[in-house]
Structure prediction request, 179 residues.
Amino acid sequence: MSQALDTLRHEHDAILSTLKILRCMAERALQGNADAGDIAALLGFLQEFVDKCHHGKEEGLLFPALQRVGLAHQGELVGELIAEHEQGRALVGVLRQASTPVLDAEAFAAAARTYAEFLERHIDKENDVLFPQAEQALRADELEALQQAFADFELQVIGQGRHEELHDLLHRWKADYAG
Prediction:
């Protein structure tokens, strides 16, 4: 296993934890017990960590590396995944719309359920199909270069120490919502 793909798998684990928290927030919203600040912060987390950081690494670094070795042309998997990233962005927009300026608990809960189920399927596809193919298609030196590129990307896109801050926020939410 490569460190680069392990990084993405680890991020998938964090995203799956976030989806559990989102579901809990949606349930609390239905019970009239929502925390608007936490909902807004979680939506920011989805945009910054999931989309900007994680999907940014995939779209800007992993997918082009796979295209260079010809893997992207097999079954158009990469194109499908990019389209799913776009769909995920749209679903986060629906979540935001359902939560601001005033929370619509029913709409938020429905959007949360749709987004969580969608992203879980997407993550399964990457973990079970794309990453094993990538590990076979990319040489060890390419995977090592990819890991360094991920670190550089993260520093440029979200800044020094921000990844850790986001994980700390996730741990706080776990204690508050999934504890």
